[in-house]
Amino acid sequence: MPAKSLMRFKCVSKLWSSLISSPCFRDRFLTVPTRQRPHLFMCLQDVNDHSSSVTLSLVPDVNSHDTPSSSSSSFVVDLTIPRMRGGYICQNLRGFMCYDLWQKPRIFNPATRQLVTLPPAFNPNTTKGTVSYYFGHDPITDQYKVVCSVGVRLTDTQEVRSHHRVFVLKPGGGGSWRKAYRLPPPDFIPHIAARGGVCINGVIYYLGWTAADNCMLVSFHIRSHDFKMIQVPLAEELPPPAKMKNVCLVEYCGKVTVVDQTSLRDKGRLDLWAFEDAANKKWSSKTLVVKPSQLGFVRNIEFVVRGTSRNGKVFLIPTDLVSPFQILCYDLQSNDMIKMDIKGVPDHWFSKDKSTVEVMLMDHSETLMSLMNT
Question: Given its phi and psi angles, is residue 213 left (phi above 0), alpha (psi -120 to 50 degrees) or beta?
Answer without folding.
Answer: left
